[in-house]
Design a protein that fits this description.
This protein is an alpha+beta fold. The protein has one domain: Barwin-like endoglucanases (Beta Barrel). Helices cover 19% and strands 31% of the residues. It contains two helices and five strands. It has a five-stranded mixed sheet. The protein is globular. It starts with a strand and ends in a 5-residue tail after the last helix.
Length: 78
């Protein structure tokens, strides 16, 4: 599954959470956008379907870089 973001580098993996139903998907940034300044990410249809809002078209989401999540979740080594 893929997405468009204005500033994240291509190839960046992000975790997107639908704040209304709690569904989560991981997507890879492969395009620029969205062009509407009120939106933070454009998701592929497959990602929108997995998050449960493809028929609506818009949803409140949280976007987190997977590398940032792994840094927080990774155990510290001695």
């Amino acid at each position: 599954m893929t997405a468009a973001h204005r500033t994240l580098p291509f190839g960046t993996v992000v975790r997107v959470t639908n704040l209304d139903n709690g569904r989560i998907v991981s997507v890879t940034i492969n395009d620029r956008g969205p062009h509407d300044s009120n939106r933070i990410i454009d998701l592929s249809r497959g990602a929108a379907e997995a998050l449960g809002f493809a028929s609506i078209g818009l949803a409140r989401v949280k976007v987190e870089r997977v590398s940032d999540i792994q840094k927080v979740a990774a155990p510290s080594l001695p």
